[in-house]
Amino acid sequence: MQIGIPAETVVGEHRVAATPETVKKLISAGHSVIIERGAGVKAAYIDSAYEQVGAKITDDAYTGSQMILKVRAPKGEEIQKLPANATVVAMFDPYRNTELDHFAAQNVSAFALELLPRTLSRAQNMDVLSSQANLSGYKAVLLAAAEYQRMFPMLMTAAGTVKPARVVIMGVGVAGLQAIATAKRLGAVVEATDLRPTAKDQVESLGGKWLDVPMSEEEQQKAADAAKNGYGWMPGEQYIKDQAIIVDKAVSNADIVITTALLPGRDAPRLIRTETVAKMKPGSVILDMAVETGGNVEGSQCGETVVTENGVKILGIPNIPSTLSTEASALYARNVLNFVETLFDSEKNFAINPEEEIQKALLVTHGGQVLLKRG
């Protein structure tokens, strides 16, 4: 099978869907791989590195390719380049993607990697959300630290003592846990909160302080059910009020705040209001990791740094994994390779099975139809 790796066209997207490491494995499995010229350059994977493992460099990775691997799904004119009956493996942002009908019209089988069932242990090595979130949590702290005008660790000098930075992490998923670990390594005092009470042990194991919000029995059950599928849940009115009080106090006293809360298929939940930001100290920094899907922070703007009247910086940095494009591409490409291998049977024949558990979850267009149920 010919597998094509086009260059990414989204502004600011520096990742690539295959690296020389994964291309070598694809070729060893009997496939031919063509790489669009310069596709990996922004991630430090130069054309000659792909050629050395047997790939062909071309100006058009779509022509003749039965399978296309991308980071961001093809858009607009790219979709028209897809051969009929081709297979595309990428991140589709499926619940917001308005072009799925076009893929169906091209009779394309489209696999949206974000839809991977996170509760399946055998699917963990394909989980692009987790691999990229891990990097995001790490880099988010560094980006915030670069904007912060003071130091993170406590420092005792002849000129006086420097107090450690107080960091609040909101959302303790993969990104949040990595952010806690990174902030602690830099010497900060870290507090964290999450809708899942089970996250408390994880926070404390990393040296963070858990911000506890009282829960009713019903809410505890909802949280437990949500924990089983690896995502958040929608809390009740009383919980939201109680959480707002605790968050307001913690954020008001914080030097750095990192928000990581995302809900699949929905706008990001609003965690920090303008009135809370107004209580923060001048020079404090908030980084809103959910800014691309509406933002956790009132007033955050995608791609911009907003400075409030009281001197607080709100960083709306999109696509943080792309700022670590070399490592992000390496991890993403391995996730993709692991998934692609499931599309071939024991005889190495290509065989899409819409009833197979993982494929069924990821397949958003197939056989000329849009399969995604938007709820």
TrEMBL record:
EC numbers on record: 7.1.1.1
Annotated ranges, domain Alanine dehydrogenase/pyridine nucleotide transhydrogenase N-terminal: 4-136
Protein function: The transhydrogenation between NADH and NADP is coupled to respiration and ATP hydrolysis and functions as a proton pump across the membrane.
Protein name (record): NAD(P) transhydrogenase subunit alpha part 1
Family the UniProt entry places it in: Belongs to the AlaDH/PNT family.
Entry GO terms, CC: plasma membrane
A Gene Ontology biological process term: NADPH regeneration
Top-rank taxon, per record: Bacteria
UniProt entry tagged with the keyword Translocase: yes
Single GO MF annotation: oxidoreductase activity
Domain Alanine dehydrogenase/pyridine nucleotide transhydrogenase NAD(H)-binding: 145-316
Reactions this protein catalyses: NAD(+) + NADPH + H(+)(in) = NADH + NADP(+) + H(+)(out)
